[in-house]
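2024-03-11 09:14:02 INFO worker-7 job=invfold-0412 stage=load source=structure_tokens
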């Protein structure tokens, strides 16, 4: 794809970066995992569209929070503590929803429901054993979705690892 609209970027051009021109939805994987309207509301709070210090601090705080929460989920899964897993799912669901991280939010909602011994929609009762099985796979899925969207966000902030 031509880079006609990025003359201002030429001085710092790094060919290993996707040219997103400040539009997160142009980054591969964003459309599947980020609600554009919600994330745009966060970006609107930035004073400087180049630096994006405010939104970056919120997003990077979320990275730390998510990693810590997933560690807690792993230890509580080992303990078979469904109540705590439900609470952790609820907590991370709220944080991810605030940023518009839709896939992570949806998986965390399932974690919350399974921890309450309910099906993924929270409507029907399931057994504790079934809940634990579903929690194990859904936590793995949520972690993968988190790492996928983390890569997208790091690309957006030009901070790929």
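2024-03-11 09:14:09 INFO worker-7 stage=emit residues=161
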């Amino acid at each position: 794809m031509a880079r006609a609209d990025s003359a201002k970027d030429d001085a710092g051009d790094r060919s290993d970066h996707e040219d997103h021109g400040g539009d997160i939805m142009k980054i591969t994987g964003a459309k599947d995992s980020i609600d554009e309207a919600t994330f745009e509301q966060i970006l609107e709070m930035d004073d400087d569209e180049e630096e994006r210090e405010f939104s970056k601090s919120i997003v990077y705080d979320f990275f730390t929070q998510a990693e810590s929460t997933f560690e807690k989920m792993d230890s509580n899964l080992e303990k078979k503590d469904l109540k705590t897993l439900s609470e952790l799912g609820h907590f991370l669901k709220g944080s991810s929803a605030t940023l518009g991280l839709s896939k992570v939010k949806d998986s965390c909602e399932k974690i919350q429901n399974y921890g309450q011994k309910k099906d993924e929609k929270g409507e029907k009762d399931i057994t504790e054993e079934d809940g634990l099985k579903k929690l194990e796979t859904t936590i793995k899925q949520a972690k993968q979705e988190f790492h996928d969207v983390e890569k997208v966000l790091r690309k957006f902030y030009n901070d790929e690892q």
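2024-03-11 09:14:09 INFO worker-7 stage=report msg="The CA atoms of residues 89 and 112 lie 5 Å apart."
2024-03-11 09:14:10 INFO worker-7 job finished
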